[in-house]
Write a structure and sequence with these properties.
Oligomer: single chain
Protein name: Enterochelin esterase
Order of helices and strands: HEEEEEEEEEEEEHEEHEHHEHEHEHEHEH
Radius of gyration: 24 Å
Strand content: 25-35%
Number of strands: 20
Distance between the termini: 76 Å
GO molecular function, one term: acyltransferase activity, transferring groups other than amino-acyl groups
Organism: Xylanibacter ruminicola (Prevotella ruminicola)
CATH architecture of the largest domain: 3-Layer(aba) Sandwich
Pfam family, one: Esterase
Structural class: alpha+beta
Shape: globular
Keywords: Signal
Low-confidence stretches: 1-26
């Protein structure tokens, strides 16, 4: 008996020791990263005594200008960290404005996430560490506040047009489960290389909706976040293809198949959820490729959506080869038919340095020439999530009034 008790004690000691090793208790300098100071300056730290050079890149840094194809674009900047005698590399920013920031460390030329920061987000095939500095009304929309919360579900549906079982992310507002009411729906579409997780993770869509609804600024609504890659069942790593490496360009990208299959999503939502089933209670919006999809879905189905939002939209990136080129044919004539049906809102938002601003200005010039009414918002910066969160926050309160 004593021998059994001794063996059990040794096993427990071994397990405890292993747990301590996994948790890395007491190993090396104890530092935090990121460390946000009272004035909203931030210190980033990395313990790497053997490294030769450590840098950081992120959207909290002023962007650098790069030339490509005769145009000037914003690109992420890079700064060096400084090593102290304990092998800790550090960099402290100027006081930062309230915002949700993403960043990476670069150690001897290798880009990594911040190992001292457990919060990170995937965007296509890149991982970023993330930092939220609140303090103003807009950025506080991105936080989980003490308000009633909606529910975010990952839901599978059959798409006969695509010949696949596919997945959408669905936000239902607080009280949906017990209210018995019918709700309007916003279909919210991601950009190229994204998936049905993009808006809920990078876009903070659930937090924005929770807060706007709680403040009485937005109507309670469902938000349906689709996967715009029609050849894909769901986001990478959560499909029958296993842990496939994410990539930006997938088969059937922007060649009409997604737009053709989109009514499958609407039919599924209206069969499965308590929603209002008319044009006045449906909206569609998207960023970049999702704006491209939103434009062509709406103009090919002019009786489907009463509200259309184009966020940094690729409005002129037509793909004539293969797929369903008829979707993209006669764009301006289809726009005229859409406006003849009197949509309640046609909304365009884009950054001043966005590489798609010329295409958007061309679209606006056409709308102006035809006296089509639209709402326009131009913000600082380029083709970035910082702007798309703003656009969602501005667009949503205008819906279903």
């Amino acid at each position: 008996m004593k021998k059994l008790m001794l063996m059990a004690a040794l096993c427990l000691m071994g397990m405890a020791a292993q747990a301590q090793q996994n948790l890395s208790w007491g190993q090396g300098p104890q530092v935090a990263s990121p460390d946000v100071h009272a004035d909203n300056s931030v210190t980033f730290n990395l313990i790497a005594p053997e490294a030769q050079k450590v840098q950081i890149t992120g959207d909290f840094l002023p962007p650098k200008k790069v030339e490509f194809g005769g145009n000037t674009y914003d690109a992420p900047n890079v700064v060096d960290l400084v090593k102290n005698e304990k092998g800790v590399w550090s960099f402290t920013t100027e006081p930062l404005k309230p915002e949700l920031y993403t960043y990476n460390m670069i150690v001897d030329g290798v880009k990594i996430i911040d190992p001292l920061n457990v919060y990170n987000i995937r965007d296509i095939n890149n991982l970023f560490s993330v930092l939220l500095i609140g303090g103003d009304q807009r950025t506080d929309l991105y936080k989980v506040n003490k308000v009633a919360h909606g529910t975010v579900s990952k839901v599978w549906y059959e798409s006969p047009t695509a010949g696949l079982t596919r997945r959408v992310t669905v936000y239902t507002p607080a009280g949906y489960e017990t209210s018995g009411k019918e709700y309007p729906v916003l279909y919210l579409l991601h950009g190229i290389g994204g998936d049905e997780n993009a808006w809920s993770e990078l876009g903070r869509a659930a937090q924005i909706l929770d807060n706007l609804i709680a403040q009485g600024k937005a109507e309670p609504m469902l938000v349906v976040m689709t996967n715009g890659n029609i050849s894909q069942e769901a986001c990478p790593g959560e499909t029958s293809e296993g842990f496939k490496v994410p990539t930006m360009m997938l088969p059937k990208t922007m060649e009409g198949s997604f737009e053709t299959a989109f009514p499958d999503v609407v039919k599924f939502i209206e069969k499965t959820y308590r929603v209002k089933k008319d044009k006045a209670h449906r909206a569609i919006a998207g960023l970049s490729m999702g704006g491209f999809h939103s434009l062509f879905i709406s103009i090919n189905n002019p009786d489907m959506f009463g509200y259309v939002g184009l966020f940094s939209a690729a409005v002129d990136q037509q793909q004539p080869n293969g797929g369903f080129p008829n979707i993209y044919a006669d764009r301006n004539a289809k726009i005229d038919k859409l406006f003849a049906k009197n949509p309640k809102l046609f909304w365009i938002g884009i950054g001043k340095t966005d590489f798609l601003i010329k295409n958007n200005n061309d679209l606006r010039a056409y709308l102006d020439s035809k006296h089509h009414k639209y709402t326009y918002l131009e913000t600082e910066g380029g083709h970035i999530w910082r702007n798309w969160r703003i656009y969602l926050s501005e667009f949503t309160p205008l819906l279903f009034k």
